[in-house]
Each structure stands twice: as C-alpha cells, then as structure tokens.
Design brief:
44% helix; 515 residues; alpha/beta; 18 helices; globular
C-alpha cells in the first residue's frame, strides 16, 4: 500500500491515501482545460503539481490511472469563437486551443494522462446520468426544457466545502449564470444539468435528448467521464482550489445522487499570483506559456511552478524566474560536468535505472508527507553540494579515495573506490531525486537543450558533422586536382580557409585541422 499522506480538502486534514480502491493502483481524475483560449501558467500549475504526484506514486511502486478531461463545449467557447474576427466555428476554436495546451504540457515535461476524454465525445453518458438523476428524484425538467439538479434533495450537499445550503444564494459559477436558465428554476440554488438549445447558438452545438435538443451543463461531464474511466468510486479527484465551489461540489452532488461513491479524497492545488492577484484572463495579467517560452527555458518555468508545495501560492515574477534560472543552471551544469568527468559517461543511465536506486530517507519522508517539496528540495540542494565537493582540482577522476573519504561514504558504497566513482554515485543520487520532480537534466524533454554545443557530447557531435562537411569539400577538391582544374581546387581550399579549416597536402593525401 502507498505510504503517502495527502491533505484532503473534504476532510480538511492530512490523511493516509491507503487503502486504495484497487490494491497496487491509484486512480486519479484531474479537471483539465476548458479550451476557450491559450494556456497560461495558471493552467500549468495544476498540470505540473499532479504530474509530480503521479511520478511519486509510480516511484513508490503504484500503477497510476490518471484521467484528465478536456472541456470542448462551453458557454465561453461559444462566446469567444463567435466574437473572433472573423468568427470561427466553435469546434475549430476548441481544437486550436486544445492543441496549444498539448504543446504546453509537452514543453514543460508533463507526462500524458492515461486517457484524455473530451466532453463532446461523452454526451450519451451524460444523458444517461441525467436520466438516472431524474429517476432518483434529484432532478427535474423546467418548462423551457432545461434540466436542473435539485440541491435540496441531497442531504450531503455542501459537505465538500463545508457550507450550509441555507447560506447559499446560488450554486452556479458566475460565468455560467444565464437569465434564460435562471428563470426556469424552481429554486435559485439549483444548477443546470442540461441546457436547452438556443436559436442564437450554433445548431451543431446541441445534441438530441429525451428532453429536447440541447447541451450539457458544465459540471455534468466530469461525473459522467470519471465513472466511465474509473468506475463508481476512485481514489483522488484533483484540480485547482478555485474549482472547489461550485464545480467540484456540484460534481459530487451529481455522482452521490446517482448512487456512486465518487472520489475518496480531494486534492486541490493553490493558484499562481502576479503582484498578489490570481492568474486569470479577466484580470488582464495572464502570462501565456508560448510567449514565456520565447524568453525562458521550459525547465526554468517548470522549476518555478513545480518546486513549491502544491497548496502554497506561487508568486510569479521576474525575481521568481531569475531564482529558478540560477538554480537550474547549477543543477544541470553539475550533472553535465559529472557526465563528462571521467570520459566513461557512466552517469548517463536511463530513467528506468534511476528509478531502481534508493532515495535518501529524508527525501522519501518529505514526499510521503503531503508531497513536502520544501523538505525534498532541501535534500536536492544537499545532494548538489555533495556532488560539487566531489570534483577534485584538475578533475583527477582516477585518484583513489583516501581511507577517511571511504569511511565517510559508509559501507553501502563498497563499489566506490575512486574520485570518478564518487562523482558518478553522487550525480546519480541527484538525478534520481530530480527525476521524481520531472527535472532530471539528462531526461526528455530537457536533455537536448542541456547537452547542447557547450557539452562534450555536443562538441563531439559538432566535430563529427564538421568532419563530414570538410571531407565532402576535400573529396571534391581531390577530383578537381586530378582533372587539373586548379582554379576549382584553389577555390575550395580558400572556402575551407575562410571557415577556419587549414588544409595541408601530403603524399598520402590532404589533411585538415582547425586554425
């Protein structure tokens, strides 16, 4: 069983994750993107936080089944696509921005979910759920064909957010309030399950149902899709803290009303702030991921967003990015130096081998206690310091370790006898922890950037490519000389000289070196 303890938003306490619904497996439903616009860093905070959770569970031997939905039909999508210049079909607008989200997830090293269902692909399941709620007496059909959930019919409504029904004026999100829909309610606190089609909306943004043509309410899709892919009950429901009410409260009400156990635990991440204000498009302070990536390394963005505790607010600023950039340089340069240290590249092991290595006890204890990133990062910094102190003046990798140095390592490192061995083991220790955080410099998607022209690997690749290009010109020059085309031969030699390549003729043929 997993030893992880997590803060449960419903219990309002840190509780054990175990036992899980299925032993050896952790099932997670994460509220994904409403693809109304381009992804900003606020969206990425949630994706990265749950990517770290997933990585830690898998590192601890659990199989993780993660579902992250895509809301591709919504009031905002319809409004924004219609307001575009020129207007764009709503489904094309949604697809464009879904692709932007996919690109942002990949760029920041977020592993793809097990499944990523779209709302529009699960309308039959949503209709079945509405029918089930009507049959159970938890829903009713309004005069205009809208279908509503009756919050008064469910005794535990408000239990997720610890609110009393009598204290609530509405259970709709402000962005979802519609005068036509509100007028059809028996109780203003009820929320929409199914919205009847409007003549002002695209005809293809509606589906046939027993109650007439229309489209699902915002909350319905998550209840239907979580059951479709995870069953009546699953281990963790996740998302941003701003979704707790009304979205997650209403999801829980729908699922409980249908007779399903739904989520055993609720895990919410805090938001990103800019100058103290929550990230949102409406505040006008959004920072679009694609634009940030024009200036900052993707690893720097991930480090800034993903090494702060998931329940703590990230204050996003130039200072935050500068600090993250400096730390990433220290981490990646130390790993690359270790990789090049003894010429064997023994540090360059695949991720699967890293995940078989034991982790420091303090790192494991920190991660097991509500993903305690402060304690985990303290261990990362300590490992970085140990690695840097292992490098010796003159990079003498073959020097045997002294008795004192060997005793300081402990008996568990009997395979370590030289400075090169020590550098290798300490670099692998560091990589192993960074792998849990999705920040191992030698793994995708960071590897190609880290092993650029400045590394030995990059230099070797560049020299190989240069050698092939030079040899092509030398072969052509040899043919020109054989044909006594001295002008062409001299021109080729001059071209190489201009590029910094010195050609020397000898009885054995032409040789070259860099000037």
């Amino acid at each position: 069983m997993p030893s992880l303890r997590l803060y449960d938003s419903a219990a309002r306490a840190v509780v054990p994750l175990a036992p899980t619904v299925t032993p050896g497996t952790v099932t997670i439903y994460l509220c994904g993107a409403t693809v109304q616009g381009s992804p900003h860093i606020g969206h990425m905070r949630s994706a990265i936080a749950f990517d770290v959770l997933r990585r830690w569970l898998e590192r601890c031997g659990q199989e993780v089944r993660l579902i992250r939905n895509v809301t591709d039909i919504d009031d905002k999508i319809l409004a924004r696509s219609a307001a575009a210049e020129p207007p764009v079909p709503w489904w094309a607008w949604a697809q464009r921005h879904e692709r932007e989200f996919d690109a942002a997830y990949r760029a920041l090293g977020v592993a793809p979910p097990t499944y990523e269902p779209r709302a529009t692909g699960h309308v039959p399941e949503m209709i079945d759920l509405v029918r089930r709620l009507l049959d159970a007496g938890h829903a009713y059909i309004g005069e205009r064909g809208n279908v509503y959930f009756s919050v008064a019919s469910l005794p535990d409504y408000g239990s997720l957010t610890n609110q009393r029904l009598e204290d609530l004026a509405t259970t709709e999100d402000e962005s979802q309030i519609d005068d036509d829909v509100e007028a059809d309610k028996r109780d203003p606190r009820d929320f929409a399950l199914w919205k009847t089609a409007k003549p002002t909306e695209p005809a293809d943004a509606a589906w046939d149902s027993p109650w007439g043509r229309g489209r699902p309410g915002w909350h319905l899709e998550c209840s239907a899709m979580s059951r479709r892919y995870l069953g009546d009950e699953f281990d963790i429901h996740g998302g941003g803290i701003d979704l707790r009410f009304p979205h997650h409260e209403n999801e829980q009400a729908q699922s409980h009303g249908a007779g399903w156990g739904f989520a055993r635990h609720w895990v919410h991440n805090a938001w990103v702030t800019v100058k103290g204000e929550k990230m949102s498009k409406s505040l006008g302070n959004s920072l679009i991921v694609a634009e940030l990536l024009r200036t900052y390394d993707a690893a720097v963005l991930r480090l800034a967003l993903g090494t702060v505790h998931h329940r703590s607010t990230v204050e996003f600023s130039e200072e935050t990015l500068a600090d993250a950039s400096a730390l990433w340089r220290r981490l990646s340069s130390a790993v690359v130096r270790a990789l090049d240290y003894d010429g064997t590249h023994a540090v360059d092991v695949p991720a699967a081998a890293l995940r078989e290595r034991p982790l420091p006890g303090a790192f494991t204890a920190a991660m097991d206690e509500d993903l305690g990133l402060a304690g985990a990062m303290a261990e990362v910094h300590a490992a970085l310091k140990r690695l840097n102190t292992a490098f010796t003046p003159g990079d003498d990798a073959a020097r045997p370790l002294t008795r004192d140095e060997l005793e300081a390592l402990g008996t568990q490192r009997t395979e370590v006898t030289t400075v090169g061995d020590l550098v290798r083991e300490r670099a692998l220790d560091l990589r192993s922890m960074l792998d849990v955080l999705g920040l191992d410099p030698l793994s995708a998607p960071w590897r190609d950037t880290v092993l650029g022209p400045g590394s030995r690997q990059g230099q070797d690749a560049a020299l190989k490519a240069l050698g092939q290009l030079v040899q092509h010109d030398l072969d052509e020059r040899a043919q020109a000389r054989a044909a006594k085309d001295w002008a062409r031969a001299d021109a080729l030699r001059s071209r190489l000289a201009a590029a910094g390549v010195v050609v020397e003729d000898s009885p054995a043929g032409a040789r070259w070196h860099l000037a």
